[in-house]
Amino acid sequence: MSGTSWYGRTFEIRLGPPGHGGFCVGRHEGRVVFVRHGLPGELVRALVTEDRGGSFCRADAVEILEASVDRVPSTCPVSGPGGAGCCDFAHATPAAQRALKAAVVEEQLRRVTRIEREVVVEPVAGYPADASTGWRTRVRLPVDAEGRAGMHRYRSASVIPDLRCPQPVPRAMDGLADRLWTPGADLVVTVDGDGVRHVVEVAPAETGGRGGRSGRGGGRAGRAAEDRRGRGSADRGSAGHGGRGRGGADGERPGSSGRGAGDSGSGRAGGSRPGRAEGFPAGPGRRDRPGGERRGDEPLAAPFDSGSASGGSVPEPGGGEGVPSRRQAMARRAAAHADRVEYVIEGTGRAVEYVAGRRWEVSSTGFWQAHRLAAQCYSDVVADWAGLSPGARAWDLYSGAGVFAARLAEAVGRTGAVLAVESARPAVADGHAALRDLPWVDLRADRVERWIGAHTVTPDAVVLDPPRAGAGRDVITALTAAAPDRIVHIGCDPASFARDLALYIEAGYRLSALRAFDAFPSTHHVECLALLER
Ligand SMILES: C[S@@+](CC[C@H](N)C(=O)[O-])C[C@H]1O[C@@H](n2cnc3c(N)ncnc32)[C@H](O)[C@@H]1O
């Protein structure tokens, strides 16, 4: 490039195939342009929103000159050019959204593993093929300086105070826009398997730090921080989901949370917390908030994805000053994951969930699959692919509260054994309670990287569902050295999923089955499950 930034320029561009991250790839004057809000084949007028030099820049399709037959009126009034980052594909039919994701998975497999394979992205079992809204049971909403809950602008820390997101299940957002919240806090909203809504306000990072309001000792906070070290980037589905989002909420979100195992967490809010207008000074240091309080645990599985996980923020339209650097963006993400006090505003903060007839009660701010039908869908595939018989041995790595461990345990029976590992202590405690009738499950709080080195007895099957960043070389090297016959690997990021698959193949495993689910409709995120056999 000439050295002159294209930031703010507009030009016509014909869009090519989708790239990983919710955009289509085009070329203009010899440069690659990643264009959001368009579809393959469309001719659009693009506005450059980010240009850091080099061979590519980023743009929004601000005018559609020749529309694709797959285009529909966007189902999301909050995303779109200059808007929020979560509903990347809300302007495409659900079938076209799935085709875009399939193309991205195929391309990642081809490029990273050299596997040529047709991928079909399926609706999550039980979810209508022609729908793309009303599926999300967990959202994490940032609160702006005025106390309004909203969504992160794409690749920005700024908050759009508009809650008309089409992703959440009905009633999830009701009334949240009618009141003010603590500036800088996050709201974690969960609608559980009984239809009960839980609203938890997570204190701003600077006021909710260790030792925060509770006066609880640094020891507890210290434990929470230690537990949290195993956490990957949240993973999934973050509405913000970033991808499983980043919460994508991407900013996707173990820790004892300062609560003892089995602690029901919280105490009720005792009704709604008054808004600021009713005399609650907002801001740092407020410690007299009514309602239950608890320490934070695992970040939400699927926060709204602002795209910030993909590296830094971008200038606001028309601006360019004050753009957070990569380091600032990292610091912001670290703060978001720091030990923060939680206030239960509505519900109990304890979400009841059901999978395959089993009941879990988990922290409403901890990890659970974001799509209302995903846990059941994946656990059915896991149970099928693991191919276990009575007396067999299995591992469930990154187990959360043991959704897959329960299915494996039912297959191996009491003469078998299931070892499960999860770094978030509250999830482990919740798993112990839900699986107490399955004493042949050994669910441990540990980091997989540490645990796996000490377990060398060959299991028959292993399921692993790591955070967005994937399992990585160290874990997969240790896992393949243990030489299980079957490995079921689950990944919510096609790039890290493909990198992990390449490591299995390098270790002598073959990909014998692959399924991909549109577990995050309207977004670019997709969940992939692979069966690897020796
Ligand atoms: C994608 S979730 C899967 C949870 C579970 N399979 C489920 O479906 O509910 C990933 C889980 O890995 C945990 N985790 C993240 N990093 C870890 C690590 N290094 N060791 C163990 N667990 C980890 C997170 O706390 C989270 O519960």
TrEMBL record:
Binding site for S-adenosyl-L-methionine: Q369, Y398, E422, D465
Spans annotated as Disordered: 201-333
Record's keyword terms, sorted: Methyltransferase, S-adenosyl-L-methionine, Transferase
BP GO terms, sorted: rRNA base methylation
Bias (Basic and acidic residues): 223-234, 285-298
InterPro entries reported in the protein's UniProt record: MeTrfase_TrmA_AS, NA-bd_OB-fold, SAM-dependent_MTases_sf, TRAM_dom, U5_MeTrfase_fam
Biased composition (Gly residues): 208-221, 257-273
Record-level Gene Ontology MF annotations: rRNA (uridine-C5-)-methyltransferase activity
Bias type Low complexity, positions: 306-316, 323-333
Pfam families reported for this sequence: TRAM (PF01938), tRNA_U5-meth_tr (PF05958)
Residue span(s) of domain TRAM: 4-63
Gene3D superfamilies assigned to the protein according to its UniProt record, in alphabetical order: 2.40.50.1070, Nucleic acid-binding proteins, Vaccinia Virus protein VP39
Active site (UniProt): C492 (nucleophile), C492
Family according to the record: Belongs to the class I-like SAM-binding methyltransferase superfamily. RNA M5U methyltransferase family.
Protein name in the entry: tRNA (Uracil-5-)-methyltransferase
